[in-house]
Amino acid sequence: MRISKNEVRAKLIKTALGQIEADLVIKNAQILNVFTDEIISGDVAVQSGWVAGVGVYTKAKKTIDAGGMYLVPGFINAHCHVESSISSPKYYSAAELRHGVTTIIADPHELANVAGAEGIRYLLNSLKDMQIDCYVQAASCVPATAYETSGAVLDADALAKLLQEPGVIGLGEMMNYKGILDCDSDILDKLSAAQGHIIDGHAPGLMGRELSGYAAAGIHTDHESVLFDEALEKIRAGIAVLIREGSTAKNLSEIVSGLVKHNIKTELIAFCSDDKHWAEIYREGTVRSNIQKAIALGLKPETAYAMGTLNAARIYRLWDIGAIAPGYRADMVLISDFEKATVEQVFKDGIAQDKEHMPPEQKQKTLKNTVNLPPIDVSTFALPTCLNGEYPVIKTVAGQIITQKGSIKPQDVSHAIESGKLCKLAVIERHKKTGNVGVALLEGYGIRNGAVASTMAHDSHNLIIAGDNDADMVKAAEEIKRIHGGFLLVQGGEVRASLPLPIYGLMTESPPSEFLTAHEKLLGLLYEAGVSHDIDPLLTLSFLALPVIPEIRLTDKGVFDVLSSKFID
Amino acid sequence: MRISKNEVRAKLIKTALGQIEADLVIKNAQILNVFTDEIISGDVAVQSGWVAGVGVYTKAKKTIDAGGMYLVPGFINAHCHVESSISSPKYYSAAELRHGVTTIIADPHELANVAGAEGIRYLLNSLKDMQIDCYVQAASCVPATAYETSGAVLDADALAKLLQEPGVIGLGEMMNYKGILDCDSDILDKLSAAQGHIIDGHAPGLMGRELSGYAAAGIHTDHESVLFDEALEKIRAGIAVLIREGSTAKNLSEIVSGLVKHNIKTELIAFCSDDKHWAEIYREGTVRSNIQKAIALGLKPETAYAMGTLNAARIYRLWDIGAIAPGYRADMVLISDFEKATVEQVFKDGIAQDKEHMPPEQKQKTLKNTVNLPPIDVSTFALPTCLNGEYPVIKTVAGQIITQKGSIKPQDVSHAIESGKLCKLAVIERHKKTGNVGVALLEGYGIRNGAVASTMAHDSHNLIIAGDNDADMVKAAEEIKRIHGGFLLVQGGEVRASLPLPIYGLMTESPPSEFLTAHEKLLGLLYEAGVSHDIDPLLTLSFLALPVIPEIRLTDKGVFDVLSSKFID
Description:
The structure is a homodimer. Chain A is α/β, with parallel strands linked by helices. Chain A has three domains: 5-68, Urease, subunit C, domain 1 (Roll); 74-319, Metal-dependent hydrolases (TIM Barrel, Alpha-Beta Barrel), CATH 3.20.20.140; 378-567, no CATH class. In chain A, strands 1, 2, 3, 4, 5, 14, 15 and 16 form an eight-stranded mixed β-sheet that branches. An eight-stranded mixed β-sheet of chain A has the order 18-17-20-19-22-21-23-24, sandwiched between helices. Chain A is globular and about 85 Å long. At the A-B interface, helix 1, strand 3, helix 6, helix 7 and helix 8 of A face helix 1, strand 3, helix 6, helix 7 and helix 8 of B.
C-alpha cells in the first residue's frame, strides 16, 4: 500500500496544492490531529486512497459534508486472533469495519498450531477478501509447550521464511517466557530470526528482574497486563502495553484508571481485543468500545483516540496509518459523539464504506479436513490406573479461565459422576493420529446425560470432550470426525446440536447469521444439559487443554500441573 | 550494534536475572525513564555494552556509585553536518561526546557536493575513528540547484546504491521543495528510491497547501522552522520538527516558548544543531545546551530530555537507543544538576568515557586535493558587461544569512569600491576546471586593501573570493590552490593568515588546538582588514553562493535572484 510510483505521488502533490480534483473532499469536519492532540476545523482532500491535504479544499469529484462531526483516523486493533471469532477473516473484517477498525494486527496462532505455515498462509490468502488491512505476526510458539501434541512445529528457520512473506511484519506473542528466561537455544534462535522485526510478548504478571530479562531478550509488546502496576513496569522496561478488552479477559478498567490517576505518558500504549467473539465485535466493536470506556474512566479523549490509532501504528512501525495527515492512508472514521466514539461513517482507502454490509456468502470452499482420529470406543475414555491413591481433579472457577486442583479417591469416582459433581474430560490428539489420549476428571462443568466436544482447544487444538458417559463421548468423537471439526452436544446417543468448524477445526466460512444461530442454539442446549451458568460452556472447555494457565490442565499427554510444569501420574 | 547472537542475548538475560556478573553496575542513581517521564531510584546493570536490567543489582565486575545523581539516556543530535565544524569526524565526535551526545544523525551534504558518493564514504570510513555512533543520511540534493556547478551529481540510482550501504539510514534533507511541488521527475525518483527509509526535509517557511504537498510527497522531518506556528503546522502534517540551535540559526527559544504556552504534544519533536562550530560544540555541547535552554524556558525537564533522546531515536527508527531500559544500548549520561543538564560522566556502550580526552593526532593523511582551478589573472575578476543600465548589488544583512538586492550604476562602481562601500565578489568553479566564474558587487562586507577566499561556499563549495582589488584576489586564488583549499586573507600581495582545509576543501585533520588558533588569528585579521563586525567574515562569505536562500546570490554561473529563480543579466 506504499506510495511507490511517481504518478501517484505527483497526483497527491497536485491535489494538495489544489491544482487537480481530489477523488473525495470531506468538508466541514472537526479533524482530530493525533500528532498535536488538537481538533481542527477543516476539509480533508483524498486522492488515490491517500490523504493529500488537510485545510480548505473544494475541487473534488465527490464531496461529503461532515456537518461538523468529528473525523478521526481509522482504528487499529493492535493484537487479535481472528480464529477466536470462529468466523472467516471475511466476516471478521466486516464486524471490525462496522465500528471503525481499518487495520488489525493478527496473530494466527491457532491456525498455526493446527496447520503450521499453511495455516498462516490461509490467513494471508484471505487478506484479499477482507475490507480492512491485516498485518500478520508469525506465530512464535508452535507448539505452545512441549507438554502437548500440536498439528505442526514452526522452528526458527520456518519463522525466518515466513518473515520474508508480504504481509508478515513480525513475530507473534512469545508466550514461552520461561524458555526465554532459561535461555533455551530454540527460543533464542527464534528471537534472532526475528531480529529487526517487531516481537510480541505474552508475560502475564511478569515483573522485576524477570521482566528485565524478558525485555532484554528483545520483546517489544505485551497484552497480558491485568494490574496497572504490572502495565506500568512493562512500559518502564520499554515494552509497549496493548490494553486488552476481549470477551473474557478485560483489563481496560484497571489499567486506564491507573493511567488517569498517575498521569502517565501514553506513547507506548495501545488497545487490543486479543480474543473476542464475533457477535460482540459486531455489537460494540473492539477499539471503538475501548476508546469509549477509557474516556468514561476519565482519560482525555484525544489520548484515548491516539491509543486506538497513532500509538498502535508507531508500535508496529506502520508509518502511513494512524493519523489524518498528508501522505497517510485515507482510513478515517466520522464520529458524532466524540466521548462515546459513535461511529457514523467509515472511510477505508478514501472510500466511504457501507458499514452494515455483510459480504455475500460464497460457495463453501473445499473443507480443510484436519480431524485425523484414531479408532475410538468406550475404552478410549477409561481413566488411567490410579498410582498415587487419588485422582487429580480439574476444577473450573466461576467467570475465569484459571482452574484449581482438586483430588478424589478412586472408589468415590463413580458416585461423583452419577451425582453430577464430576464428569470426564478427554483430550484426543487429532492431527497426526498418534493415538494419544488424556483422560481426567472435571469438576464444576455440569454436563448431564451427555457429552460436549470441541476441536478448538487451546493451543494445540486437539479434540476435547467433556461428558458423563462414555457412550455419548464416543458418539461425540464420531460426529466431530464426520463434520471435520467444530462444537457439538450429544445426549442419549443423539447429536442434539452442532456448529461445524471445517476450516482447520477452528473457523467457519458460513455467514454470521447462520453460525450465530447455531452457536446460540448449542449454548442454550448446553445450559439445559446442566452446564453451569457460571461459565461459558464452549470457551471454558476450549481452555481446559492450555498448559500455560494455572493451575491444572489436561493435554493429549495427560494431566498437567502448570505451576510445577509436571505431569501428574 | 544489534543483538544478533544468542550468546549475547543469553548473557543479557542472565545478567538481568542476577545470575551472572554485570560488566558494570551503576548504583544509587536517579534514573530518568523516558517512556513514563518518571525518575526512579535504582541501579543499572550493563552487560556487553547493553543495559541488561534496571532495579537492584550488585553482582558486577565494576561498580560505580552515582551518589544520587541523575542518569539519563545518551543524547542524540538529530541532524548535523559534521563539515560545518571544519574538524575531522574524529575530533567532531570528541566535542559532542564531551557533552553527552552518544549518537548523531549526520548529513554529509557538503562532502557529497564536492565528491559525491566518495565524499559520503569518507564519512562512513571515519565512523571507526569516532567515539560516538553516527548514522548517515544520503545527501539528496547534489547539486543543490541547477544554478551552480557542484563537484558531483547524485541521482536516484546513486542514492539507491548508497541506501544499501551499512550506516546509511535514509535520505538527507530534501531542500529542493520547489522541485517536489513542481513534481520534477528527478526529484520524485529520488523519493521513490528512498521509499521505506526516513526522508529529511528542509522547507523554511513552508505552510498551508504547499506544506501539505511537501508532506504528501513523503517527507518525514524538517529542521528549518523559525516560528512556532510554522513548527506547529509541520507537526500537524506529521512532519517531525527538529528544533535547530546552531552557530547562526537559533530557533529554540521561539519554538519552545510556543510549546510551553500551548502545551503541545512533543512526540514528534527533537533537537539538532544543523551547522555548529567546533569550538561552540566543545564549549557548550549541542543537545545538552538545548535541553538546558528548553528547561529554562519552562519546558518540563522530562519532556526536554525526551526530545534530546527517545524522540530522536523514534523519529529516525533507531529502536535500541534513546532510553535506559533492558535491551537498549548502554549509552548514558550522569547529570548533577538536572535542570542545567550538567554532564558529569558519559557512558558509551557501557564504558565510562574520559570526556576531556582528545584523540591523538595522527600523521596527516594524503591530501584529498579537490581544488582544480583554471588559469587565473586579473581579467578573471572583471565585472561582466552591464546590460540593463545597472549592476545588481548583493547586500549582507547584519546577523543573518539572508541577503538583500541593491543596484548601482556602472559609473559609480569605482568610487564605491574605493570608498569601501562595495567590494567585488567572485565564485570560481573549482571542481572540474570548467572555467566558470561569476563576478558581482558586494555591499556590507567591508574588506579593505585585500581579499578573503574560501573553498567552503555552500552548497557547491566552489572557490569564493571577496576583495577590493583584483591583484590580491588573484594571489588569494593562487594560494588556495597551493594549500588545496581552506580559508585565507591576502593583503598587499601577501598571505596574512590561512587555515588550510585539505579534506575536500572543507575540513582539516589537524587537532582543534591548531585549527582553532589559526581560525582565531584569521578572524582577528579579517576584522582588522575592515570586515564588518555585524557579520561572521567566513560564515557569511560561505553562504553568499547558496542560491536557495533569499534574496540574491552569486554562483559560478552568475548573479542569481532567488525569489524569481532567475539569473540577473
